[in-house]
Please model this.
Amino acid sequence: MAEPDNAELLALEHEGDLASFCPHCHAPLNMYDAGTRRVWVGLAVRVNGAACGLLLDPRLDASERRCSDGWNDGDLAEDVICPHCEASLLEADGRCERCEAPVFGLEVSVHTRVVPLALCTRAGCPWHGISTRTRAKILAESPRQKKPEQDAMLRVRNFSEVSYGYDGEQAVAEAGRCLQCKKPTCVDGCPVGVDIPGFVSLIAGSEFAAAAQRIRLRNALPAICGRVCPQDQQCEKLCLLGKKGEPLAVGALERFAADFERETDQVRLPRRATKTGLRVAVVGSGPAGLTLAADLGVQGHSVTIFEALHKAGGVLVYGIPEFRLPKSIVEAETGNLRRLGVKFELNSIVGKLYGLQELFDLGFDAVYIATGAGLPGFMGLPGENLCNVVSANEYLTRVNLMKAYLFPEYDTPAPKGRRVAVVGGGNVAMDCARTALRMGAREATIVYRRTRDEMPARDEEIQHAEQEGVRFHYLTGPVGYVGDEQHWVRQLQGVRMKMGEPDESGRRRPIPIVGSNFLLDVDLVIVAVGAGPNKVLFEGAEGLERNARGYIRTFTESGRTSVPKVWAGGDIVTGAATVILAMGAARQAADDMHAYLSDGQTAWL
Amino acid sequence: MYSIADRQELTKRDMISLTIEAPLIARKIVPGQFVVVRVNETGERVPLTVAYRDAATGTITIIFQVVGKSTALLASLGVGDAIKDLCGPLGAPGHFEKVGTVVGIGGGSGIAVLHHLLSGHKEAGNRLIGIIGAREKDLLILEDEMRALCDELVVTTDDGSSGEHGLVTDALKALVERQERIDQVLAVGPLVMMRAVTEMTRIYGLPTEVSLNPIMVDGTGMCGGCRCTVGGETRFACVDGPHFDAFKVDFDELIQRNQMYGRDERISLLTSIKVR
Ligand SMILES: Cc1cc2nc3c(=O)[nH]c(=O)nc-3n(C[C@H](O)[C@H](O)[C@H](O)COP(=O)(O)OP(=O)(O)OC[C@H]3O[C@@H](n4cnc5c(N)ncnc54)[C@H](O)[C@@H]3O)c2cc1C
Ligand code: FES
Model:
């Protein structure tokens, strides 16, 4: 096969299109011809009986078929032959009808073309002419593309995003690892059922914006989910590639597609249905509230979100740090909602400024409660109210929402410490420890009562924390804090634990080891041990039933509550969970609310 | 955006009163509740107790002393300027019932809050005795308004430049000594003042309520920065309070906790002066 000619590659760059390369031998797999605005496919075929390296989209009219290699510009190709079995590929749709070799490039598009990795034809490339089974085997052993990241030593000094994400080349290469399973198990692991093989194959074909649109069919916040979803516990956990080697990097690919779409201004919002004249109030602007607003907004309802804080986004803006989820991304998403006609009432606390029932008096036809689990958890230990013992919520809110990392340019300070202890093992704890390092701590230690395997944080966050030098004290828990005369915390009193028998939830319970107490010198303690429901909402919400833990009780999958026309979802129903579960709940509620509102139903439960 | 409808300098010493257009909050807020103010994009969230509200014109009034960068920033606003964010009403609403005679003790800018609270007690049909104090005459606010509201008013200054020479606790003691019947004491002001009042009323066995002012961030019960120990339990002042039974409050802890950002506040102020 011919090496790509420089002029062609230049033209390619000039056009801003992305080339794809074989992940194994780095041969270019497609090329864009600026003159004809068509893409040549890197496939060794025989055209009109002669072998040639590059072939134009074989489904074009005979008069348009041209070959780049061994053929003169303008030569017509009357037939295209499968490189494996010599069958004609003119009618083939996806696979050669005879030998089942995959045939790509059958869809006509002026910009980019799907390229089969298995058809890289460069001499010596292992992809040449192999069977599907061998291919699966090789793919399983192929290494996952590494996301380029800021160097750990550098990044602990700044708040810029840790991971840069894939570039086009890497994304195409990673997408090429997908087995395209007929029964994709990964999709079962996705709480909102994103068509993973579908969008991945679009990326493999460099159809990046289309890939993002495919994701958007099920997930309204892909740039966010690609960054913060616990993929290692969901889709990637079920990926067949993971059985033998490393699973496909679904999260990184999702992020790539969404970033591409946003950065190239190709976000295409779904068209709004004609106005229904019905009004929906959403309480809380976290992922649940945003998703619901997007879904119902598209259906033509007029949606108003009431948010207690001065910025929309919930945990996405006040909790998750900038270095993990840049706030500009959340703003872009809330901006998209505004474009859909969703109204935001910030600084508006339901329960204080409006009662729940009052929302109906204001003319809303239905209410969705998505107020999250915003109440910080404390352990009730001696010394917990010393100066510089703070909740994770306070620490993160000061640093993220109030931008204390830019103090004194921004007016809000954050508590400072040189030796920081963070109690807990979830994402929240990782975020606090890594934030503390960036805020100048010399040492940040996670104090967690179970072991690394039980830590609920995302794998990637744990690894990042380790790389950044966060220390981990596993199987330890605090029993109190010691302060100095001025009431500032100086030491954490800890006790070592061992793992006991599994409890009802199936998790093994840590048991303190008698006599194993120890002291840890600290000057800042951040308590990141779970959260509860904020009760402010419940002022003036008569009849809204709650469960024993204080969360809202729902009576249907879709989140109907004990009060007619009031739905609830996200953390305020489940307790602290994840972004994607909150979104999944909102999607179900949106479908039900739309049906209820449009049918004029009256039966509630 | 919330526009400033009126601005007054109450004394020569940086006691400012701002009236802000906020019809929704004005409709809902009751005496003792507060709002959180964020002046601009880089500003802090500052909790300020509301001193008056006027539901008819849709305004609320806050009164504060300039003590740091954020209050200086607020003080720099004039009529027609706007505040970026205003959130409220926050805090548990005060409850007002007829108990007989209520003694309200206020110090510094706390007098403004006291005035609002006492108006609630007046409406409930109570007899009011006010005691207001300040270091010096130029820090004393709302004397006329308090005089109009209360059945009796005692004014004290530390240096004797106005009213009686002494502390508010001296005036309280005088009331007790002349056998005044007191059913409820209300103290609003600096923590040391509230602590001193509480120490005294504890001895006399007079039920006392104080209005706490811990450091806050959100004011909605989300961060726990405002936590205080009340009756041996941790309570969030922004949602459980800010009014608590004075005898149960751990003042010493709160006084210590309120110093947590002292150093940062100085840095913030110094930087802002340099920038200006
Ligand atoms: C630091 C941190 C890191 C996390 N990291 C991850 C992660 O990496 N991956 C992941 O999947 N999940 C993560 N989570 C969990 C995830 O963020 C939550 O599960 C998710 O945000 C829940 O969404 P929600 O919409 O239910 O509520 P929230 O996001 O909590 O939003 C609730 C909103 O409602 C507002 N509100 C509350 N009460 C009222 C009221 N009375 N009136 C008006 N508004 C009100 C709040 O101000 C808030 O904005 C993290 C959580 C935290 C705290
Ligand atoms: S100010 Fe944050 S909880 Fe009270």
